[in-house]
């Protein structure tokens, strides 16, 4: 009996293609569901694939069952639509009717509901880290530049802010400069937030982008990702560095990220958030 193919539900960006490359390297068969407007069919030559719009969940599940897929990897950039623009097919309409508006209250709500649906339909949702272990980073500094005392204070402030917005399922990132919150990530995503804070930068040392896993976030279906585009945005915004959750955020093309950061004197730091909360508390007590 042939091995069941891995199903890659692909959004935009490089991460879905990296999962596909990892499957090839591991000798695992795979098929791809390309989300219209995000993944590009031309980048998946020779792969069994179907392109669907976001509202065609029923069509996608029927196709995956016909392919014999069992495990599903959801990966890549996707902008969450409004319910009015979704135009659900029969399968998606049934899904929305069953879970109600909680699917549109935040990314975690939607993804948790989607995970439940996939399991009910006989699939096993798995995270991209099953295939991309190297995309995660243990705690430590990746670059030549390192955070100074001011940047460390901004990281601690950023951890508190991101945890607060993450607890209400709003976003995974914030930019802090000299203790001031210049921006928090919401539905627009990290790149748009970085573009917005360019105009808000204060005089003096640059700020820090802090990117964390949301409290209670399902790491099997959604993890924060950073790549060369994130570094370029941070440089353009005049930031001093990026702090991200160790073994929690996925790095797309780490070597290029480090090269970009070193050229600009930007630091990249993988952190354990609790360590920075404790450091901030200890400093305040003194």
How would you explain this protein's 3D organization?
The chain has two domains: 125 residues, Rossmann fold (3-Layer(aba) Sandwich), CATH 3.40.50; 150 residues, Cytidine Deaminase, domain 2. It contains ten helices and 13 strands. Strand 1, helix 1 and strand 2 form a beta-alpha-beta unit. The strands form three sheets. It has a six-stranded mixed beta sheet, with helices on both faces. A five-stranded parallel beta sheet has the order 3-2-1-4-5, sandwiched between helices. With 286 residues, it is of the alpha/beta class. It is 39% helix and 19% strand.
Quick rundown:
With 286 residues, the protein is α/β, with parallel strands linked by helices.
- CATH fold field value of the largest domain: Cytidine Deaminase, domain 2
Which CATH first-tier class of the largest domain would you pick? Alpha Beta
Query: How much helical structure, as a percent, in the residues?
Result: 25-40%
Using the 3D structure, state the CATH architecture of the largest domain.
Answer: 3-Layer(aba) Sandwich
| Number of distinct helices | 10
Number of strands: 13
Overall SS class: alpha/beta
The major beta sheet can be summarized as:
6 strands, mixed
How many angstroms does the end-to-end distance come to?
Answer: 66 Å
**Tell me, what's the shape?**
elongated
What is the CATH homology-level superfamily of the largest domain?
LpxI C-terminal catalytic domain
Across the major sheet, the strand order is 6-13-11-9-7-8
Count of the separate structural domains:
2
Calculate the mean pLDDT score and round it: 85
Which value, in Å, is the CA radius of gyration?
A: 20 Å
């Amino acid at each position: 009996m042939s091995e069941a193919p891995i199903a890659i539900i692909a959004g935009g960006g490089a991460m879905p293609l990296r999962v596909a490359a990892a499957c090839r390297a591991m000798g695992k068969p795979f098929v791809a569901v390309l989300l219209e407007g995000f993944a590009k069919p031309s980048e998946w030559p020779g792969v069994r694939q179907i392109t669907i719009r976001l509202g065609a969940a029923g069509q996608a599940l029927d196709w995956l069952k016909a392919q014999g897929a069992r495990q599903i990897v959801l990966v890549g950039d996707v902008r969450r639509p409004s319910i009015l623009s979704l135009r659900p097919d029969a399968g998606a309409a049934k899904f929305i009717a069953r879970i109600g508006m909680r699917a549109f209250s935040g990314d975690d709500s939607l993804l948790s509901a989607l995970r439940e649906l996939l399991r009910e339909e006989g699939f096993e949702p798995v995270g991209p880290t099953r295939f991309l272990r190297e995309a995660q980073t243990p705690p430590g500094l990746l670059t030549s530049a390192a955070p100074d005392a001011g940047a460390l204070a901004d990281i601690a402030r950023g951890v508190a802010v991101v945890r607060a917005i993450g607890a209400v399922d709003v976003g995974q990132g914030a930019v802090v400069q000299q203790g001031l919150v210049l921006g928090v990530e919401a539905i627009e995503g990290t790149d748009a937030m970085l573009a917005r804070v360019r105009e808000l930068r204060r005089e003096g040392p640059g700020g820090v982008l802090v990117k964390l896993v949301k409290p209670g976030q399902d790491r099997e279906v959604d993890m924060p990702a950073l790549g060369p585009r994130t570094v370029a945005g941070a440089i353009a915004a005049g930031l001093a560095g990026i702090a991200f959750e160790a073994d929690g955020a996925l790095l797309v093309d780490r070597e290029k990220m480090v090269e970009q950061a070193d050229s600009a004197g930007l630091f990249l730091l993988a952190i354990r958030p609790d360590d920075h909360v404790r450091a901030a508390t200890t400093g305040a007590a003194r």
